[in-house]
């Protein structure tokens, strides 16, 4: 079953996760030490039932927006992206991304997908702040956050444990008005004039 794209980019689109994703290479991402080196996965085996349960959660929840990253050219599901822990009173959310298909690493797909979901968060979900945290060893995610305009706000010392060591977590955040100023191409013209 082909899902209808939810957010469209120039080389990819974001769509809801669907149950048949659990039967694809998606399952292998979270059992791959290299894919999970810089995230909180790969602590226990990731099974088909785990993937299916997560996908079903993603389809129902309004507390997170969890989408598949799919290439436009060949419709390959290459990763997942999300706005998590959405708080509609504080108007905040946490940004997360995993690119599971290694042949698409370092080619700008993460940046394009991130711009789509962050723009949606600010413009359609009416968020005021989006944050993300990453291991101090995850230079790629730090570069992505900074290229998107996220500001380094602090460090949670030894907040994670991975690969037999405690790891600092760097916290980033971006406010809606900061995003609108930096990303005019992702902002409808009428909204640009209101800021």
Description:
The protein is of the alpha+beta class and 195 residues long. The protein is 27% helix and 32% strand. It has one domain (7-186): Aminopeptidase (3-Layer(aba) Sandwich), CATH 3.40.630.30. It has helices at residues 26-29, 48-60, 109-123, 139-147, 176-182, 189-192, and strands at 7-8, 12-16, 65-71, 77-87, 92-99, 129-135, 151-162, 165-175. An eight-stranded mixed beta sheet has the order 1-2-3-4-5-6-8-7.
Compact summary:
The chain is built from 6 helices and 8 strands, in the order ββααβββαβαββαα. With 195 residues, the protein is of the alpha+beta class. The protein has an 8-stranded mixed sheet with strand order 1-2-3-4-5-6-8-7.
Residue fraction in strands: 25-35%
- Class by SSE composition: alpha+beta
Q: What is the ordering of alpha helices and beta strands?
A: EEHHEEEHEHEEHH
The helix count comes to 6
Q: Please, what is the CATH homologous superfamily?
A: Gcn5-related N-acetyltransferase (GNAT)
Question: What is the CATH first-level class name?
Answer: Alpha Beta
Domains counted in the coordinates: how many? 1
Net shape: globular
| Mean pLDDT reading | 90
Helix content: 25-40%
Annotated CATH architecture:
3-Layer(aba) Sandwich
Q: What strand order characterises the main sheet?
A: 1-2-3-4-5-6-8-7
Biggest sheet statistics:
8 strands, mixed
Q: Could you give the count of β-strands?
A: 8
Q: What is the subunit arrangement here?
A: single chain
């Amino acid at each position: 079953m082909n899902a209808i794209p939810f957010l469209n980019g120039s080389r990819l689109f974001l769509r809801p996760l669907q149950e048949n994703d659990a039967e694809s290479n998606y399952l292998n991402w979270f059992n791959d030490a290299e894919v999970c080196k810089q995230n909180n996965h790969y602590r226990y085996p990731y099974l088909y039932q785990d993937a299916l349960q997560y996908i079903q959660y993603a389809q129902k929840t309004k507390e997170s927006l969890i989408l598949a990253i799919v290439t436009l050219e060949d419709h390959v599901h290459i990763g997942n992206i999300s706005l998590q822990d959405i708080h509609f009173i504080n108007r905040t959310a946490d940004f997360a991304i995993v690119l599971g298909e290694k042949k698409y690493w370092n080619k700008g797909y993460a940046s394009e997908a991130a711009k789509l979901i962050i723009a949606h968060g600010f413009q359609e979900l009416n968020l005021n702040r989006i944050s993300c945290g990453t291991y101090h060893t995850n230079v790629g995610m730090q570069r992505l956050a900074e290229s998107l305009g996220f500001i380094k706000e602090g460090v949670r010392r030894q907040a994670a444990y991975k690969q037999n060591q405690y790891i600092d977590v760097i916290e980033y955040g971006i406010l809606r008005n900061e995003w609108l100023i930096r990303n005019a191409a992702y902002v409808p013209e009428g909204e640009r004039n209101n800021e």
